[in-house]
Description:
Its cofactor is FAD. Its main location: other. This protein has helices at about 15-20, 30-35, 40-55, 70-90, 95-105, 115-130, 130-140, 290-320, 340-375, 380-410, 420-430, 440-455, 490-515, 520-555, 560-580, 580-585, 590-610, 610-615, 625, 635-645, 655-675; strands at about 150, 165-170, 175-180, 190, 200-210, 210-220, 235-240, 250-255, 260, 270-275, 280. By secondary structure, it is α+β, with helices and mostly antiparallel strands. It has 3 domains: about 35-115, Butyryl-Coa Dehydrogenase, subunit A, domain 1; about 150-280, Butyryl-CoA Dehydrogenase, subunit A, domain 2 (Beta Barrel); about 290-615, Up-down Bundle (Butyryl-CoA Dehydrogenase, subunit A, domain 3), CATH 1.20.140.10. Strands 1, 2, 3, 5, 6 and 9 form a 6-stranded mixed sheet that branches. Helix 6 packs antiparallel against helix 7 and helix 9 (about 340-375) packs across helix 14. Bound molecules: ligand LUC3G6IP and flavin-adenine dinucleotide (FAD). Flavin-adenine dinucleotide (FAD) binds near residues 116 and 439.
Amino acid sequence: MVHHQNKAIREGDNPDLTAERVTGTFDTHSMAAQIYNSEAHARRRREITEIIAKRPELHDTKPFPFMTREEKILESSRKLTLITKHMNEIIEPNNSNEMFHLNNEVLGIEGHPMALHGIMFIPALTAQASEEQQKKWLTRAINREIVGTYAQTELGHGTNLQNLETTATYDVATQEFVLHTPTITGLKWWPGNLGKSSNYAVVVALMFIKGKNYGPHTFMVPLRDEKTHQPLKGITIGDIGPKIAYNVTDNGFLGFDHYRIPRTNLLMRHTRVEPDGTYVKPPHAKINYSAMVHVRSHMITGQAIMLSYALTIATRYSSVRRQGQIDTTQPEVKVLEYQTQQHRLFPYIARAYAFVFAGAETVKLYERVLEEVATGNVSLMADLHALTSGLKSVVSHYTAQGIEQARMACGGHGYSQASYMSEIFGVAVGGCTYEGENMVMLLQLARYLVKSASLVKTGQSSKLGPLVAYLGAKSDSTSLIDRTPTTGFAEYVKTFQHIARRQTLKAADKFFGLMEKGEKRPIAWNKSSVELNRASRLHTRLYIVEAFVRRVEEVADPRLKEVLTDLLHLHVNYELLDMSTYALEDGFVSSSQLDYVRDQLYFYLAKIRPNAVSLVDSWEFSDQELRSVLGRRDGHVYENLFAWAKASPLNKTDVLPSVDKYLKPLMESARASKL
Ligand SMILES: CCCCCCCC/C=C\C/C=C/C(=O)SCCNC(=O)CCNC(=O)[C@H](O)C(C)(C)COP(=O)(O)OP(=O)(O)OC[C@H]1O[C@@H](n2cnc3c(N)ncnc32)[C@H](O)[C@@H]1OP(=O)(O)O
Ligand SMILES: Cc1cc2nc3c(=O)[nH]c(=O)nc-3n(C[C@H](O)[C@H](O)[C@H](O)COP(=O)(O)OP(=O)(O)OC[C@H]3O[C@@H](n4cnc5c(N)ncnc54)[C@H](O)[C@@H]3O)c2cc1C
């Protein structure tokens, strides 16, 4: 038996796909260890996949696209119950990475009745509840004795938290908070799993004590009777209806009618209200935004994974789809041979790797900040907020674009739900909106960049933090790309730094200039905001390139290093071309240098071509996790598309009731009128 570098090879697979795998130059298990940050975790993912493969009760009973929303929720609840019961046989206790993989395999990306419980409810209690409160609620939440969500957004306000309408008014006499929804627009609207599943929520409401508004605070609120699951008195609650995707999750609405909770239900790890109404403020005004920062930090990896789902599907399919000829004397080629197809897919493969490496760094920083904040040190909160605001925006934007490119790369079959592309797109694109609409979050990063630009302009560059230190550095007069005998990544990084620095300083100049001309600060800010957001994007894209460079430098295995270096070359050349206006406008890069960049791009498209399938196989997604006929590991696409179509609910009978009821009479009357 031959041992191939690509571990996805099996006998009986589509030979076109096997041929791709045979050309792979690196070990896909070793690459998976890079993607998932450790050999141990990559191995555990495979073990978990194998365990699930052997347990048919954990498999989908039919393809998701053939189920109604109600069926999907029932099916998801069935599997959720099973994995809860057998969790310790499948994953290590409390291992969130393993849990994430188990969920993706068994439950899928469309959500499930306890999605928000794990992603926001438990993180909110962990970071914001006092030890006493944690003893009361956190253990029960972890044991799944209660199901919770995070209820912040309202019908009228999601972005502007200071203007939420839900109030929590302290009643000193009874030592209770009175939660109230004064208007329709004050209804909580959107929280995941609020509609039908949760019996508790961490609710964000404006806190009023003795007539004074203390702004948004977080409260632990019982919503439904623990035994009957009926809404408690004073609570109006339900599902907000079907969405573009993510429909297994029951996003909900919630209203309070003078609903009373004890004072001790205010989450009090960092903030306190004493029985007499005395307010003890937290060490940082935004400390209670931690559940949002948790998701923003982790969603970078989540988005990279969804982008990679789409790229795995499109790259495998492109290797078995033959159409047209390049050399007319030769047979039809795999569509992956077309340079346009490679140009559509490979730069996004590079981006997916770049995103997952950046995501890993972000989670590390998040964990550090979480530990520091627990001891009262809030010094890195602003840096984390700026970084995650930029990354969630840039990564979710390019993820959605990449998935759409991957769908189009699959031609007509990409439009069928058999590809699963529409669901992947629909779920991923939600990330552009949730956890802060992308424009809004880019503007949050811009505040940080403008402050940094001020330091540079006032000669205080030494005070710049490591994420923005480059803003204080001097640029070369022109880029050295193609001007040194061995153009390396350093020249590219310096070019990206130059571009981001120039845009940041220019946008800040515009903002300060408008204020000098007499505009009020918020007006000047609004008039500069497109330019400011450009700066935020360029800064974030620089960070992503640097994270990629850092990772490639760390890799020891020469085969992995070579292919990752190829991907990095592709990435830097593609990114630079994509932002070439910025590079050209001050002459930092010349058009002849851009010709070099273009040639490099085409060179690396061709160099990556033999490794394309191995690069997507390295993510090691099982067929169950991908849920795509086009993306099957074995490449047997056509017979399975036919089987899928035959299984469609519409094909259960030859003649549909709608035909009997309407079409037949319509045709009959048309025929009769002709007589
Ligand atoms: C496990 C991984 C898998 C992931 C998959 C997830 C799938 C789950 C699907 C969906 C879940 C979705 C959940 C949600 O969407 S929950 C609701 C999220 N809502 C938002 O994100 C709202 C966005 N708005 C805000 O965050 C804020 O309103 C704001 C940041 C835009 C402004 O806040 P506000 O208090 O009004 O601002 P101020 O003007 O008073 O202050 C600005 C000041 O504060 C600093 N700051 C803001 N936030 C933070 C923070 N978190 N940490 C540190 N500092 C913060 C900000 O930097 C400003 O500072 P300044 O410039 O020095 O003044
Ligand atoms: C799939 C999904 C799941 C969600 N889950 C939850 C959840 O579990 N819990 C929860 O509480 N919420 C949840 N949400 C709500 C989500 O967090 C909000 O929708 C999001 O924060 C955006 O707020 P908004 O809807 O008020 O948008 P808006 O603020 O109304 O945005 C509309 C437009 O206005 C622009 N805009 C708004 N303010 C500014 C500004 N200051 N400067 C410039 N432009 C601005 C935006 O850029 C956007 O273009 C979810 C949403 C989705 C889609």
